[in-house]
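Now read the record:
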Amino acid sequence: MLTTSSRILIQLALLGASHLASAQDNTTAAPVTSPPVPAPTTSSPVTPAPVASPTLPPATAAPVPAPVQPTNAPVPPPTPKPTVYNTPAPTPWAGIKYVEPEPDLRWSTKLPGTGGDSNPAPRKGNAVAVSPDDAFVYVTTDDGKLTVLNAQDGTETGSYDPNIQAFFGSNIKCESGVSFGRVANVGPFAVYAINYQVAGVDKSRVIAVSHPYGNQLWTSSDLDGIVMGTPQVGDDGRYVYLVRNVNDVGHFTLLRTTEAADSAGVLYTEQAGLNNVNETGKYAPLALVKNPNNGQFDGGNRNSNDVAAWGHYYMGGEGVAGYTRVFQLPQDFTTSSDGSVLATQIIDEVAWSTWAKPTISSNGLSIFYAITRGELRGWYNNKWGRKAWKGETAQDPTNGRTPVPNSAALSNDGTMLFSASATNSFHRIDAASGNVTWTAVTATEVVTEPRVSPDDTRVYTIQQGAGVVTAHDVSDGTAIWTTKCDKYQNQNPFCQYGVEAEFSVSSTGYYLYYSDNRGTVVALELGGVPPPTTMAPTGSEPTTAAPSASPSSTPTSMPTAGPTMAPVPTAMPTAMPTPIQPWTRPPSAAPTAEPTVEPTAEPTVESTSEPTSSPATTEEPTASPTSEPTVSPSEEETDPPVGADIASGAAGGDCGSWASRLAMFVAPLAYLLVA
C-alpha cells in the first residue's frame, strides 16, 4: 500500500506532465492543415477532379457578356467554352481487333425535326462526317441544318440552323457534306455550303462553324449559282476551294479568310469557257489534296501547295464530253498576295463526264475519275492528262451513258481502288492498271463512297435501297458480315429505310457512322484495342486492360502494374481512341466527369474520371483526412512532426505528442521509486 507521500509524489508527476501537455497545446493555436488550393474544390487537395471538357484559365473562367464576345469564341450554355479548342496530337495507331461475328450497335439517335419522307433528313449530297479527332460527328440535312453529335453516345453538342438567319433567302437547301480545317489562333472548325433563292435567283453561301459547338465563325457573301459538293478547306485553314454552277455554267471559286478567321471573301473566281470558248457546261464537285509531293501536271513540278481537281458534270442526253481541270496556288503565293496571278488549268479534253469528285492519292501523284458508261479513268504515278488507263465496272442496263454515282475509294497503300458501278455491283480495281480483280453483286445500288479500313483488310459499303451495311474482304470481295437496323430492334426504336448520305469511319477504324433518309443516325462498333493513351502522367505504368466493347454509364477500372498516387486523366472510360474528353450536356447516358455521391464499388489506387464526393476508406495511402490516420511507408520509421497528431485530431492514447508520452512514462517511474 502506498504511503501518503508516495501518492503526493505520483500526483505531482502527473500534474507536471499534464502542465507540459497543456503548454504544448498552447504553442499550436492554429492547427496544421493541408496546403491550400487556389480555388475551392470538393475533392481532396492533392487529387484534383478531372475535367470533362477544355476549360478556360482562372482569369477568364467566367462567361463573357454576349455584346463583347468575339464571333470566334462563342460561350454557349451551360458551361463557358474556351476560345480555342485544342485538339490533341493523334495517337499512333496500333491495329484493330474486330468485333465478331458482326458489329455491335454503339448508339442510335433521331435528329430533331426529321422523320417522314417530306421532312428534312440527310439525303444525297449530305454527309455524316466524323471529325479528325474522332470525338464528334457532324451531320448535314437537306434543309441546310448542321447538327454536331458526341461520337461517344450520340448526344447533341451543338447545331447551326440557317433557317433562323434573317440574311438568308427562302427555300434553303443543302447538298453538301462537311470539310474540316484549323487556323492557329482560332482552332479547328468545319465548313459546309447551303443553297437558297433570292427573288427566284439561285444563291449560295459557305458557312464556317466552331468545333465542336457549331457556332458561326463566318459566312461568305452571297455567291451566284449552286455550290456543287462540299467546299474544301486548305491545309492552313485560310483558303476554301469550291465549284458552283451558274445557269448551267461552271465556276471555280477560291475564298480567303481573315487572319482572325471571322470573315471570308472571294479571292479568285473563274468561269468555264473563259480561256477556252469550246468549254461549256456544269462543273462536277472538286477534290483537294493537301501538301502533295508536287503538282502532278505540266507546270506543277516542285510545287507542294494544295491541289484542287474536278471534271465536267454529266447533264444527261448525248452530251458526255468534257474537260478535266486543276488549280494550284503558285509557289511564292502568300496570304497577302492578290488574285491577279491566279488561274485554273485544263488538264485534258476527254470524251466523258462525271457526277462525282475525283479520287486523289495522299501524295498527290495519282488521280482517278468515276465517269460515264460505268467506267473509271486513272493516272497512276503519271502526269495527269497523259495516257490514262480505262477500267470498266458495269453499265446501267436502261441507260448505258449513266455515270458511276460516287467516287472510288483508294486503299491506304495506294494499290487498290474500290468502286460501285452504274448498277447493282461493287468492284475492286488494280490502281496501277485499271483491271477489275473481283466483283460483288449487291441487292440495290451503292450510291455512297466506300470506306476502307486503316489496315486495308476490309472495305465497307451501304446499299441505297434498304440501308444494308456490308464489310467486304478486300482479298476476294466476300461479305464478312452484313447488317441493318432490324438486328438491333431491342435497342433501336427506329429502323432505317434508304441510305443516300455519305457515311464515315473513324480514323482508327473502330467505329462506323451513317444515317438513313428518315434522320436516324447510327454508330456501329467495328472493333477495338486502341493504342496506349498518350496522356498518362510520367512514371505511370501502361494500361494492359482491354477497353469495354461498348460505352457504359459507369467507368471501368484501369489496373496498373503498381499503385500510384498520380491521377490518370483517361480521355473516356470507353474504347474511344482519342485522348480528348468531349463536352456533353448533362444528363447523359455516357460517363462524364460530374462528381457523384455514390461511392465506388471497389477502391482503386488510380483516380478515375468520376471522383466521389466523399473520400474512400481504403488500405492504400491517401492524402485526404480520414477518421483514422494512415501511415505511408516512408513514415513508418520516422517520428511524426511536432503537432501532427493535434492537426489530425488524434487522441493522446495513440502516443502522438511528446507531452503525452512523457506523462505515460513518468507515472509508473514514480510508482517504482516510491515502492
Summary: The CA atoms of residues 171 and 425 lie 36 Å apart. The first strand starts at residue 97 and ends at 98. The first helix runs from residue 4 to 26.
